[in-house]
Amino acid sequence: MNIAVTEGLALMPPAFELGLDVWSSGDGTAGSATYLGAANAAIVPADQDFGACLELTKTQSTQKLRYMGQTPILPGAYLRITARVKAVSGNLPIVRIAAYAMNSAGHVAGLIEQSTQVELESYGRVVTASAIVGTGQRVGVDMPWGTQPSYGHFGIDLTGANGGVVRIDDIVIEDVTEVFLRDMMDWVDVRDYGARGDGVTDDRAAFIAADNAANGRMIVVPEGSYLIGSTLSINAPIRFVGTLVMPTAARLSLMSSYDFPTYAEAFGGELAGLKKALQALFAYTDHNSLDLKGRRVEVTEPIDIKALAPDLSSFSNRRVLRNGQLNVIDGTVWADTVVTSQATYSTSAPDTLTGVANIANIPVGARVSGAGVGREVYVRAVNVGAGSLTLSQPLFGGAGTRTLTFTRHKYVLDFSGLAKLDRFNIDDVEILCNGEASAIMLPPSGQMFHVRDCYINAPKDKGITSIGTGCQDMLIDRCQFLSNESQVPATQRVSVAFNVNANDTKIRDSRFVRFGTTMILHGTGHLIVGNHWFQGDEETNGARIAGLVFTQTNVQSAVTGNYIDNSVVEWTNEYDPTPNFGNEYSFGGLTVTGNTFVSLDSAPWFTWFSIKPYGSGHFIHGLNISCNVFRAINGDVDRFEKVDTTYADLDRSRFRNIQIEANTFNGVGQFVCNPVFLQVDQATAQTVWTMTPGAYLPFGGWARNVESVLAEGMITNNAGSRISSMPYVVVEQGTAKQDVTLNWAEAAKGRVQVKIRCDNPN
């Protein structure tokens, strides 16, 4: 490239013989003294070496000669100034190329404005002095000016003893940018625009200048450490050999190169690059996804989204982290923070702990445990000044002051510092926790967190943790959660695949392997469809624990088409601060259809479905368990359902709208259904026939209603005569209220088909 041609610029100063009025004896600025009519300057028309030239007598300690024309300085361009000089008589001076850097505001101070000096050692010998000036800090550049100057006044200085006479050939200024290969490749170099790469000078302006000049070309960042002092946005494609140093709060937005490998190269490491790339993902809208490009990132510490983006408090645009692997490297940084503290709880403020001792040491996201605390209760917010904590769920243990333990697990991806996050997706990412860390902590608030086609492998404690309502509408699709406790007996496991505090989650087509508990769900409107979770172990005749836990009474949820293996579906109200039944819905709104339930080597008292009221007075109103298959392998089980009376029993007098039918039982001792269809054979004539459906009725239900009584064949008396009168029934008979009597006007015998219910229909 030659800017005299491409930019139409005049670089070459006029010959001396055309007039000395444009040649200054000062800095070359307008109004400075010229050599026109000067006593120490004259034009020599025909020198044997130079032809027409300038003869100059040195009369000052630094004799200046500057062209007064404004020679332009363009970003990325390099100029070479050349002067040929010879001594004629008198003292022998020293010569150097000299310049004066200018912009619209005046002189640009602090720059190099002289070249290396050249000595005139004899008379008549021609000496050449030259220097290169340009914007970049490049090898071979004598005067690196950066992008502040817009033009310069160029010429020479004579130093040394006065009295010498020299002759000077016409000064040459030429574009030598091609020497630095500026346009021979399809890229621009940030050094050409003033970047120093010394880790101290703020090179942000140089990067911006390079970006402005790129015009479709790639920006190259050569070896070095480039300090970028504040947020920087680059539109052109960019390639890093050197690395960047930026303040934590400063963002780097690479509009045309937004992917993880580029950020890893920019910041000299995978984890640092991932953090800066995530920061940028939440900062601008040109890209909605961060592609890890199939790369594995070694994660040596929790990725705290709030810490890497301090100015971010909430975000509601769709963003995606996709296509890669996060691999946890062990270290003490993953150790739990455990604080034991005394706190006071009141059921009138069910989400708050007050008078919390040592509160400053209790972090947001800590799990709360102790007497009267349900599973997966977390600290949602901390008010140190007030000495109070906000909880993700109420406590069931009643009011009072108690000692609690607060355990803060460490997570690979931790969103707990944000107030709200909506529509964040993690797609096709494997999180290898390696038994060192938990995987994902959700923000306190948000909607539509989506985990899709992901693997969460060997979390130390938790897979996905909700500490508030950031799980609202959460989606988990086609994922696999692999426990770190697969060799631990089921009853000793403590891990949880995920928990939910809000409504309307969809858990679909996913696989969960040997967690302590697979899912703990609060809220309503959940759809659990097409999943496989299993929690068995290598124990013979082993105990089994809950896999799916519903933690409120009315759930309005469906469990459909799942493979439920060696675990219990447990239904509780453990987050109710006043767990006794009051003015509320009791256990209802649940549909369990089309599932395969399996147990292997289980104890006979194992059941697949358990209702566990934490207070008295509760009942079932609205439960459909139908078209499922229950199969016990290597050891039969007694029943498929039970009521866990650890805290309270159910009020069976209020059961209503329970449908348990069309299920298949293999290796299950007792068939259970509602309504129960009984065939009653009475061989000897009796006026009262007693029917005992109790074992068939679910959850120890009473025989509360009879839907129908149908005689099969003729009902006769002792004499064999037909009895045509209609019998009547009496329900809730026997000490357990599980018998029904059929009462005839006279002693009768024969066969009847009876449908008996443990509930009222509405």
From TrEMBL:
Where along the sequence do coiled-coil regions lie?
Answer: none
> What SUPFAM superfamilies does the entry give?
Pectin lyase-like
In its UniProt record, a GO molecular function of this protein is:
hydrolase activity
What are the residue boundaries of the Rhamnogalacturonase A/B/Epimerase-like pectate lyase domain, all occurrences included?
187-243
One Pfam annotation reads Pect-lyase_RHGA_epim
Keywords, comma-separated and alphabetical = Hydrolase
Q: Which domain of life is it from?
A: Bacteria
- Listed name of the protein: Glycoside hydrolase family 55 protein
